[in-house]
Structures are given as structure tokens and as C-alpha cells.
Amino acid sequence: MRLSRFTLNGIKQELVCEGDRRLLDVIRGDFGLTGTKRGCDNEGYCGACAVIMDGKAVRSCVVAMDHVPEGAVIETVEGIGTIAHPHAVQKAFAYEGAIQCGYCTPGMVTTAKALLDRRPNPSEEEIRQAFRGNLCRCTGYSSIIRAVQTAGRLMSGEVSEDEIRVDTSDGTFGKRAPRPNSLSKATGALRYGDDVPMPQNTLHLKVVRSPHHHANIMSIDISEAEKMPGVIGVLTAKDIPGSNRLPYRPPGYSAKLVPTEPILCDTRVTHLGRPVAVVVAETVRHAEAAVGVVKVDYEVLPRHETPLQSLREGAAPILSEYDSNLMVTSHLRKGGDQAAAEQAIAESAAVVAGSFATPRIAHLTIEPDNAMAFVDEDGRITIMSKSVAVHLHRMQMCAALGVPPDKLRWIENPSGGSFDSKSVITCEGYVALAAMKFRRPCKIVYTMAETILVASKRARVWVNAKLGATSDGRLTALVYDFDLDAGGYEGVAELVMNRYHKCIGGAYTLPKAYGEGRMALTNSNPFSSVRGPGGVEMALVTEVLVDMMAERLGADPLEFRYQNAWKEGDRANWGATLDCYPYAGMLEKLRPLYLAATAKARHETTPARKRGVGIGGGIWGCEMDGGDRSTVWVELNPDDGVTVYATWADSGQGGDIGVVTIASKALGGLPPEKVRVVSRDSSLTPNSGPSVASRQTATTGNAICMACEALLNAMREHDCKTYADMVRKQRPLRYEGAYVWQSPAPIDKDGQGVPWRNLSYVLNMAEVEVEIATGKVNVLKMTSVVDAGVIHNPLAVEGQCEGGMNMGAGFALWEAFEPGQTDSLLAGGIPNFVNSPKTECHYTETFRVGGALGGVGLGETVMFGAPPAILNAIYDASGARMFDVPATPERVLAALARG
Ligand code: FES
Ligand code: FES
């Protein structure tokens, strides 16, 4: 025990604590300054906990109080500025769009201030080095670099705030308006799940997890654990009153699939880390101590690591609900059957082929997963978590726990990133069950290792594909097959699997196509969405083959793409024509940039460090497949502003600014401060659907427009100009917008029909350098050209493009998840300040008739072109043709050796 004396945010403090207590725990726990975040497991690599101590940025999670100098001066994000009086650094982060989910932001702000106090005008390279210990999953780092430089200019007086402030007095539409909550994130005021004050009597949970990939649960003995100090109880599947199965199957999908994923495993574990019991205790330490005392007797079963293994003759079904591990087989047949496509390939003047493999990928959000639950004064179980689908998850949880819908309320906490990780239920069932059972508030916070271990993953896929073309450069046919690793539960895999068939082929004219996809269970993490599932993988396959074909025919890669790009009247792989055809125009926009980049690469390449340029593109449907709906309410407020009620989750992608911008425009240019958003509570909002599939901009955006129109119509009809008029005339103040899109031709067994109303498009260019001796690839710059219709907020769109390209670089070069081995953000391969490329963003804005105010979503599309662009650039630089990702140095060296 020791007495520490220090100054914290300008106030002298004394504290008695253990010498090995971490400064982060003191700041958050003893002083309640929750602006300082925890990302990694006190391992000092993520920078979310950075504070300034005696003028230097330090990672407070690794600083023991023994090492805090007597009289140290410590500054946290709260001490730097407040929402009312933000510091220049905090303003710059908001204005430059350097804040998305905002979870990394306090650590970035403190690191920036420490740097700028020392070095007022740092270069980009100096910033990258100063921030090498800070991670961000959302932004791609470019906007943070700009923010630090802008902050420096603001601090020195080189620019004034008036010069960078955005005038939103007539609305925000089309302007680089910062997000509504960016200052609360920049000042540490916004409370994420682990920051929310909870009562003294809150119980803390830890999960007992399977150490096996595949095993039967023979018995669970909780008797010793229940006697451990501080333990209130240990819950197993027997304590669950409902079905204990989370239903994922959306309406219209295969009747074969039944709910199989339990909240707590009862008879079998299907992958490493599955939950078999939950310890509920007075403190986290008590719960942790008891976890190891729960005795579980397993009968270990053979692990099916790959679909090849789980589908071999005699392989036992992983799930007892099915008689086989083959979940779904699906097809694409365009322009005839398989024989017709094969014949077209055989008759083609040129044919190229490849076998591709892509890995499991973790979401790698900087905030660890967490949830709370309590029984409210009306007897409702209230869950608070990072869910991006509060109504859907409520329905699923009610079924699994056996709770009537009116007895469960779900609130979305501010979220430190999702990328679809919270499109599925994770830890919420444990806290809800414990709150039901013990009638006390309950809380669980995963470690980062646990978050990564147990979450669903981007699925592995193996693809064989061949592409044909005529001698004059017209594509003739595509034939492919793929095997998809669904992991231990079927989850949303069938729904997402359809996207693989739709995204292969990209925006290129293919008279004939045949494909077969198989989805199989294995003993690994279940398939889930991770930013554009299927879109990323199939763009990689398509664009590498297109590049190979261009070379085979002696054509320029860009001009070959231009020749084959969808033109007016062309039919997509699913057989339908489209409302617009922007891809050729995007290639035109890229052409001068590509020519300049290629010339630069040829000039700068050396035998030891070869430079090259590559292109990749992709498409994405911006609705739920086959039909979508969203309901929104808009209510007139006493100040003649409005409140918009919509479940457009904001996990960093910009849901809040999306609602504000669309409502602002639909109401004739209402300033943003007059548009309030209620979006995070199942009990206060109508169902606007989940924030997945980049669907919200078009679907909920249209619903917002409809609700605003209903309000304006009512005001016009009754000759009302203000709230006061409406009240005086006793008119309703709340209006509903219910947007429904139903496919005019649902997808058939051949994959033909109309899956979506809207598409968004991306085109990326990568400039890389390959170190020939080591195989290391440096991505020097990524450029994007995007078309998602009319841009509502250029700052938000730029942020998505930059972040998407960066995540694409991670997919291409560094990221992979292996159960039992990948236990940190670093091990998962998250891009960082040092290896992330410079970025440049361009747009074509083709009005979308089915979009909201002409625009559609692009949060996923923006990632698709980067991986193939990088692989094609590696080939352009070095001649190493890559088919597997990540393109590690070892794989690049092997490809170089193959020639
Ligand atoms: Fe401290 Fe990650 S570096 S929480
Ligand atoms: Fe940096 Fe989300 S904004 S992690």
C-alpha cells in the first residue's frame, strides 16, 4: 500500500492504493474519469488509455502507481477540454472527421496534445511515429493525421476556427458537417457500456468456456464454485426457462435451417470458447476466481477443421438437429445451364483460372464486448449493449429466454465499433438471465482476448474460378465453385451466402455464368457478417481474374475493365437490368490518376524495391435481399424543431449524422441543432430494421423522408406554420414514415431475379512497393472512386472510404484469425499508423431513384476494391501472382519463386 500524490487535471490529489495498481484503474475506478478507455488487456499496445504524464503521452494501463512520480502532473482527455470549452485538438478532430465510433479518440486526443505541445507543426511522418502505439479500426488514420495538423495550425493561430467551421444554419445536407456527438467523444464525455454508472449492488459475470473445439458435455458440477467467496450463483443451460436457442432464420429462407445456437451450451460445444456456465458474483475478481472451480466433464470429439473434413464420408454431424454438415448448396445460372457456361469457356479465345483462399477475420473493434441488464420498475428486463439490431435481438432473446416481448426492453449503448460484430447476440443472454434470476443489476465486460476468441467471424472461403474472353477483349463466361466455412452454427450464413453469387463478376458484362456454392459446418467460430461478407471475397476473385485476362490479351488493365464495364441495358449476374450504370464513368475518373500513378511507379521502381499499381472494384446491394422495410416517426417539437425516432444504430459508421442530415434536408434545411434523434431504445422507437448490409441510408432514409413529408403535409393542410399552430388546431404532432420495398422478382433457384433495389460501387487503385529480398509489401497509397448516388455528407463518406480502404489493406496483407492462437488486436493483424497507406478519395454521384434523396449506403462497398487492387499491384510490381490472402512476406516470396 502507498500514498500517492499527484495533480490530476489541475487538481492536487492524494490516493492510498496498492503500488501495483494500474494508473488506468485509478483514473477510471477511483476518480470516475471514464473518458480514458481500455482496449487491449492492459498490454500497452492499443493506446486507448493514453494520458499525459509530466508532458509525455503514456499508456496508463501499463503504468503501475509505484511508477507514477511523486507530484506527477497527469492530464486526461477530460482535463484537456469540455464540450462547452473544447481544446483546439478536440475541435480539429471533430472538423476533420477523425472521429467515427470515437472509442480510440480520447487516447488520440491526449497523444496529439502531448505531441503538439512539444512540436507545434509536425510532419506526417512525425505524426505516424508519435502515434505508432495508438490503434483505430474505423478511420484508416488519414483523417487523424489531418486533424493533428489542423490542430497545430489552430493552436499556432495560422488558421482560425471561423475558417474551418461549417455553416449549418440552413441545414447540413451536402456539407462537411461534423457528427452530432463528435465533441462528446473528443472530450471523453460520451459513456460507452463499461462507462455507464451502475448501482453498488451490481453483480459481475464471468463465463466458463470450453477448452475444446468439439465435445459433448457429459456433466457440469457447480457445487464448489457456488461456495466460493462472493459468488451469488452459477448458471447453466438448465436455468434458462425458454428454448435456449437464438433464431436467426429470416423469413423466406430455407426451411431446412432451424435455430441451433444456444445462449449456454447444454449438450455439446461446437467450437473453442463456447459458453457452458456463467459465474455471477459480487465483484469481477470473485467471478474470475470461481470460473476455474466449475468442473465440466467433456467427451472430446474429433475436430472438423475445414469443410473438406466435415463433409467427408462418414463425418458425424456437428449439430444434432441435422443429419449432415452440408447446410446449403446454392447456384447461379445466367444465360443457360452449367453446360452452356462451360461450353462458352471452352470456345473462348482466352481462358484464365485461379484457386483462391481467404481467411477467417475478426472484427477487431477497439472496444471489448460488454453488456448490462436489470429488471426495471415495470418488471421489464432491460438489456444495454452494443446491439445494432435492438428490435430483432429483442425478438430473438425473448424466444431463447422464454420472455414475452412486452417484458424485454433493449437499449443500444454508444459503441466502440461493430463492423457487424453486433449484428448478432453475444454476451447479452448471460446478463439478462442473471438479472432475471437474481433480480439485481448485472454486468459483463469481456477481455479483448475473449472478445476476439468467441465472436463470430468473416468466414473462410475457397473458390475455384475460370474466366473466358474473346480475342478482341470481351468477357464470355465465368464458371466457379466455392466452399464456405459456416463454423459451429448456421447463423446468418445462408442469408449472406447469396451475396457471394451476386458479387462475383462485379460490374462486368458476362453473357454466361455458372456457379455452385456449398456451405458447411465446421468446428470453428460461426460465420457472421464482417463488413461486406462475400463482397470482399468475390471482388478479390473477380478482379484478379480480370487482371490476368487483361495481361493474357495484352490489354491495359484499366482499358480492359472499361471495355467490359456494365453499360446501359446490361444485365447483372442475377439477370436484371439496373437503374443506373456508373461503373464506366468511375473508370473514366480514375484513368488520369492511374496513368500518373503508373508512370510514377515505373520511374521509382528499383531492383530491390519494386513498385507497381493495381486496380480492383466491387458492387454491393444496399437492402436486405429480396425486400426491406423501415418505420420511422417524426415529431414536431415546441421550438419548431423535430425529434426523429428510428433505430438507425450508430456504431461509428455515422447513423446519427445520417438521420440528422436526411431530416434536415427533408424539412427544408432545418439546422442540425433542431433535429433530435432517438435511436437506441426498443421501447421508444419503431422498428427501422438492423443496421446491416449498408441498408439504412436508402431504407430508413426513405422512411425519414416519408415521415417528414407527412408532417409537412399535415401542416400545409391545416395552414399551420409552427408547433404552436399545430397545438392550437389540435393536430397530431407525430407522423410515421413506413417504407417498404418488395422485390418484383424474388431470386429463384438459379440465382435469377431482383435481389436489391439499389447498388453502390467502388473502384480502388493501390500503389505498392515489394521488397524483393523479404517479400514484404508496403502499400504506399490507396485511391478510391465511389458511386453511392448523391452524397449527403462528404465528411462522413470520406471517413467510410478511408476506413474501408484501410480495412481492405488489412484483409489483403495482415489479417487472419485462428482459434486458440489469435488473442489480441495485434495478433489479428489490425493495420496501424506505420503500415497504413496514404489515401485519396474521389466520387461520381449518380442519382439513385430508389435511394434517399438520391443517395444509398456505402459502408461496406468501400472495402471491396482494395484487396484485389493490392494483389494486382504486387503482381504489377514483382510478377508475384497472389491467390491467397493475407499476402504475407512468406507467401509473396513463394509466389516470386514460382515465377
Ligand atoms: Fe492501454 Fe490498450 S494500451 S488499454
Ligand atoms: Fe477509432 Fe473507432 S474511431 S476506433
What does this structure look like?
The chain is α+β, with helices and mostly antiparallel strands. 29% of the residues lie in helices and 22% in strands. It has 25 helices and 28 strands. A seven-stranded mixed β-sheet has the order 8-10-6-17-14-15-16, with helices on both faces. A hairpin with a 2-residue loop joins strand 1 and strand 2. Helix 18 runs antiparallel to helix 19. It is globular. The termini are far apart. One FE2/S2 (inorganic) cluster binds next to loops.
Name the helicity range. Answer: 25-40%
Helix-and-strand structural type: alpha+beta
Count every helix, treating DSSP H or I runs of 4 or more residues as helices.
25
User: How can the largest sheet be summarized?
Assistant: 7 strands, mixed
Question: How does the overall form come out from the CA principal axes?
Answer: globular
Number of strands: 28
- Distance between the ends: 64 Å
Poorly predicted segments: none
The molecules bound to the chains, other than polymers, are: FE2/S2 (inorganic) cluster
Quaternary form: single chain
